[in-house]
Amino acid sequence: MAKKKVLFVCIHNSARSQMAEAWANHFCGDFLEAHSAGLEPGVLNPLVVEVMKEKSIDISSKKTQGVFELFKRGESFDYVIAVCDGASAEKCPIFPGLSQRLHWNFADPSKAVGTKEEKLAQIREVRDAIKARVENWCSSACVKK
pTM for the full model? Predict the structure, then answer.
């Protein structure tokens, strides 16, 4: 049986979508293939890399990529999940084929403020919220048929 494909999308593919992709592959990698992309790809957030390493998930070698590049290549996904604010989620392209579009709103880690430790604490909250949402979603999306 072919794995279902899921694409997590945010603005820069530097934090939220990368974390969601990593958690989905961690929890449900036997049943689905998770990817991530951004509307305006940026640079991987080093603080996000750090908080994911705290949970033994290394995303340091991940590269950011643009959602429109995937669209132009004709990629198809069973699920396209926007993990950014609503206005940004509306900018996501409609992929070929039948995809289920979902929107999960999470705070933007790049907007964390304060000292490094304060920023890390804020990003940990986002990481843990994404983890809980992905784990819950995987429990229903990755059921053996």
Answer: 0.91
